[in-house]
Task: inverse folding
């Protein structure tokens, strides 16, 4: 894949990403009434780099061509949404799935079903419709939705363990599983206190 081919290929993915980012911003400032805080802590986005695309295709046994990238990769455009609470994640997922012009291509709920290593996150690949002068096409955008605690854990795990060979891997994995549990408990408590505060405020 030449640089020119790469930049040509990613253009509609960038358009799809921008459209979805705008939806998420709207969701963030309209979902709760003004007296409540916004549900999303932050939103990050990226277009997969040329080398990263080629390496992933190679790992999966495909030639590093534009057509293989389009056919086999669903994460060329990626968004990561960091929420405060699990209920915010659920609300956002429900909202995205209810939008009639978005197609759910693939969905993995690692919050209800955490990975054995402790990883928790909600992954959804959405087909976003991009309209041009003479055509309209759907492009996949991978959205990872997680809480602050899940993001902290996943970022650390990615840094010290994910896809790494290391002599003390068993020890590190045990520690990661333990901290995933602790973070989950912390989040449940924080959410409980937040709900209690909102209920008290609504009663007064
Ligand atoms: P990287 O280094 O982040 O780019 P896919 O690869 O998406 O086509 P699959 O199997 O459906 O295939 O992927 P899944 O399980 O939905 O995971 C996709 C992405 O989620 C990964 O991308 C990671 O970013 C993240 N992820 C999944 N499992 C873990 C985990 O155990 N720990 C951490 N820290 N992140 C995880 P990549 O391309 O594998 O990696």
Result:
């Amino acid at each position: 894949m030449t640089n020119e081919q790469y930049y040509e290929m990613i253009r509609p993915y960038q358009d799809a990403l921008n459209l979805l980012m705008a939806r998420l911003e709207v969701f963030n400032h309209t979902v709760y009434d003004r007296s409540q805080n916004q549900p999303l802590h932050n939103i990050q986005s990226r277009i997969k780099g040329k080398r990263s695309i080629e390496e992933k295709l190679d790992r999966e046994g495909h030639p590093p061509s534009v057509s293989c990238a389009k056919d086999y990769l669903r994460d060329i455009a990626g968004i990561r949404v960091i929420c405060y609470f699990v209920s915010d994640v659920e609300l956002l997922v429900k909202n995205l799935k209810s939008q009639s012009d978005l197609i759910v291509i693939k969905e993995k709920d690692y919050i209800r079903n955490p990975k054995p290593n402790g990883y928790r996150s909600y992954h959804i690949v959405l087909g976003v419709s991009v309209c041009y002068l003479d055509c309209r096409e759907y492009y996949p955008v991978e959205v990872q939705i997680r809480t602050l605690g899940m993001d902290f854990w996943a970022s650390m795990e990615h840094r010290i363990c994910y896809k790494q060979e290391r002599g003390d891997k068993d020890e590190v994995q045990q520690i990661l599983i333990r901290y995933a549990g602790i973070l989950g408990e912390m989040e449940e408590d924080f959410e409980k206190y937040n709900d209690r505060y909102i209920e008290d405020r609504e009663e007064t």
Remarks:
- The mean pLDDT is 93.
